[in-house]
Design a protein that fits this description.
Mean pLDDT: 80
Strand order of the largest sheet: 1-2-3-10-6
Low-confidence stretches: 5-9, 28-42, 211-228
Structural class: alpha+beta
Number of domains: 2
Order of helices and strands: HHEEEEEHEHEEEEH
Distance between the termini: 93 Å
Strand content: 15-25%
Shape: globular
Oligomer: single chain
Largest sheet: 5 strands, antiparallel
Helix content: 25-40%
Length: about 230
């Protein structure tokens, strides 16, 4: 009887100790998780907004071309300075940017290439990461090169071999965070580029960027795509 009484008496005590120990572990986990969230937020919160800190005359590694194009001398990539659907006019972007699913965005670039005679395409994930600033946010790009670019999840032409065909890579222009598990059916804006090496040696656009005179008309007005 005494042994049975002792067992009954010590069992609740052991359960209480285990209960308090588990509560302590849970409390430490919650505190740690909160710290991780705060640190993660602080990683971006302490950075200034790019448009507030980039000098108005600073174009970085870019030189401006005709009709809203800009050449990144670091990579040899020519960018259109406005998102797909909007167009460059009077040193800024006008019109509404398009939000398309990934397939439609790729088709837009194909149709634009047929109209303009220049091989435009969606920027790859590495290309967009290459223009993301590590020192500022909101969006994290040079506002002189890409005027009025909004912070948004943006399509790239890249994909991950580890994901199914239903996914493609997208990047946030706010901070440069990216994911290759974005469903292709989601509608998002996109940026357009082409390679300077793809230009014919005698093209006016090549002469403009790489020496000589002349300009090339690159019709990126979305009205040019109507009815196609």
């Amino acid at each position: 009887m005494k042994n049975r009484y002792k067992r009954k008496k010590t069992l609740p005590t052991a359960l209480h100790r285990l209960h308090y120990r588990l509560l302590g572990i849970l409390e430490h986990c919650i505190v740690g998780l909160c710290c991780m969230i705060i640190v993660g937020c602080d990683r971006y919160s302490h950075k200034p907004v790019c448009s507030n800190v980039v000098d108005i005359n600073d174009s970085g590694t870019f030189s401006y071309g005709p009709y809203g194009t800009a050449l990144d001398w670091k990579t040899g990539t020519i960018w259109y300075r406005c998102p797909g659907g909007s167009y460059f006019s009077q040193n800024t972007c006008t019109g509404d940017r398009l939000k398309l699913n990934w397939i439609d965005a790729m088709d837009y670039a194909t149709e634009l290439s047929e109209i303009s005679g220049v091989e435009w395409r969606l920027a790859t994930l590495p290309e967009i990461r290459g223009i993301i600033s590590p020192t500022c946010i909101g969006p994290a790009v040079n506002p002189n090169v890409f005027p009025k670019l909004k912070s948004a999840n943006t399509w790239t032409s890249s994909e991950s071999k580890r994901q199914s065909d239903a996914f493609r890579c997208a990047i946030s222009t706010y901070s440069g965070a990216f994911s290759c598990r974005q469903l292709k059916r989601i509608s998002m804006p996109f940026l357009l580029v082409h390679d300077s090496s793809d230009l014919p040696k005698q093209s006016a656009l090549r002469r403009y960027f790489l020496g000589g005179e002349g300009e090339a008309i690159v019709p990126l007005d979305p009205q040019d795509l109507r009815g196609r």
